[in-house]
Amino acid sequence: MCGRFVLKATPEEIADHLDLIGLEDFPPRFNIAPTQPILIIVEGERQELGSNLPNRQAMLVRWGFMPGWVKDPKTFPLLINARSETAIGKASFRAAMRHRRILIPASGFYEWRRPAKEDGGKPQAYYIRPKRGGIVAFAGLMETWSSADGSEVDTGAILTTAANAAMSRVHDRMPVVIAPEDFSRWLDCKTQEPRQVSSLMRAADEDFFEMIPVSDKVNKVANVGPDLIAPVEEAAPLAPVKEKSGQLSLF
Questions:
Q1: What is the pTM of this model?
Q2: 40 close to 60: Cβ distance less than 8 angstroms
Q3: Could you list the active site residues?
Q4: What 3 state SS string does the chain have?
Q5: Tens digit of pLDDT for each residue in 184-204?
Q6: What are 58-81's pLDDT values in tens digits?
């Protein structure tokens, strides 16, 4: 899953990477948590023929997906992630998969390796970022929920997939990352049906991310400083990964 992430890139860097215009200024965020506002990218109205202006738009939504058919949000679970393997057919996400696919820019995310109960010890937090640095774009879904009084809340979730071998040393799930060359295809909900973009919902390459052990200060939502991504000595080293018969696997 993905329960916390980081966006420390500047608005200019995000606009350049995702082909946006008019992105307002905002501070770096080192501990983005569920129910907080998150920046998302949607496909806007197509420009006039011959225009070279981008048609993608940035907006803020609440991190925690709420289907439009929910009557009482207090009785509905907080959906911060959606499993890519079932999102096309699941009632909660089916409409959004067809009509409201989004990109969620991030600099990296956090995950926790939890020791077996019999081993004792505390979970080890990791900051997981692209080895080459820069920005990643998570695949996501959005929905606008309307209350009985007519007020509306835009909500979103991050799509996840089964972890690759390297990531599985920490957790069995990871966010779906959309490559820049696939941005337009993923966001195009007018001509690209869910089954036509299903091949994009896969794990990142084994060497795409690096996992940096960090302190448990990230556990508290109130902690928001850049020190959260500072490396620490991990309690126990991760299991190594080796290449076997052309495939990466755990020892």
A1: 0.92
A2: yes
A3: 2, 111
A4: CCCCEEECCCHHHHHHHHCCCCCCCCCCEEEECCCCEEEEEEECCCCCCCCCCCCEEEEEEEECECCCCCCCHHHCCCECEEECCCCCCCCCCHHHHHHCEEEEEECEEEEEECCCHHHCCCCEEEEEEECCCCCEEEEEEEEEEECCCCCEEEEEEEEEEECCCCHHHCCCEEECECCHHHHHHHHCCCCCCHHHHHHHCCCCCCCCEEEEEECHHHHCCCCCCHHHHCCCCCCCCCCCEEEECCEEEEC
A5: 999 999 999 999 999 999 999
A6: 999 999 999 989 988 889 999 999
